[in-house]
């Protein structure tokens, strides 16, 4: 979807324009979705003991949490092209909050798994976030806008590792709830926040810089929704979309997997936690695991910033070149982390690995907006679904009894390193390169004029 009046710069401290309101609301909504999506992960030690879950059952929970999101992201991308990101996000947040709160009613493995699968529906929020910022920002800064909004959203995966154990501890130690009631009440709070944000999204945002899709179509300023019929199949026929599908599975899929397993990984494979009681072990492991997600506050943005810089210097092929570099480094860093058995060495290697994972994600979505503008929602949905497909595939390694979790991480690192070479299949025609150059130059010129006018007004 291509619209006029796109912002040529990101003014982080402003909410006066529809572009910046969409930016801030989209990352915050994605943040809460991510927070709720993985809110149960740092509490799994408590759930495992209460429901006597086996390693295989935990593995199915890991797979289940990301499986439905594959289909949800495909659907939500198609939906954005038709009804716009505002209504899509509002509906997703309101509907998605139900299983987040409802998981508190789980009483055995089967009911817990069903709710865990249903919660994964809110993971489709990523596609709407990327869609909304893509239609709001010009080519010179769209990579940065996409990466920052998604990165700050993904930050929820780190914050939840830190905050949910604190919320749980508050219910147990301060309010006197049992551990069984404590984790359930903690998830209810997360779901309630998602629902409230869904209402806010409806009233505080609009679909595009020019207005809402419904109003624009009624005024004849935008083609009817039927004009985007066939865009999903059009996106499916582009081999580059499927290359990016696999590539995103090798970065975001890995991040989802680590969000699911990190807290338990540290508890089970490092002697440091053996002497701690449940509340202390959950809190400490969650704190360490949160470091991985907290890197999103800047790491994914770096991928977008460098993507825009490489694009400005070397065109669309430059964006792809950066994607190869950071994805290749991600694979090496993951293999390094998998070999760490001493906590003081594992933590810095986890941070290094996290840096390249999130830069790879930002670099991927600095390329996506240029694949097919007419089918932006469908392309974003398919590529986004690749992240979850990668997480589903990785989940089977962690449920296998014959493979230890460190070995599973080593295998994943080797696979990511190999997949990085797939970036060389993502190519653009000279016509597309020229169009991107002209759009970038026009956006930069518009930005310079805005700065000059602002300077003249001050003097």
Automatic annotation (TrEMBL):
Gene3D superfamilies: MFS general substrate transporter like domains (1.20.1250.20). The keyword Transmembrane applies. GO terms for cellular component: membrane. GO terms for biological process: nitrate assimilation. One of its GO terms (molecular function) is nitrate transmembrane transporter activity. Residues 22-431 form the Major facilitator superfamily (MFS) profile domain. It is found in: Membrane. InterPro entries: MFS, MFS_dom, MFS_trans_sf, NO3_transporter. It is a multi-pass membrane protein. SUPFAM superfamilies: MFS general substrate transporter. The chain crosses the membrane at residues 27-45, 57-80, 87-106, 112-131, 152-177, 183-204, 241-267, 279-299, 320-337, 343-368, 375-397, 403-424. Keywords: Membrane, Nitrate assimilation, Transmembrane, Transmembrane helix. Belongs to the major facilitator superfamily. Nitrate/nitrite porter (TC 2.A.1.8) family. This is Putative sulfoacetate transporter SauU.
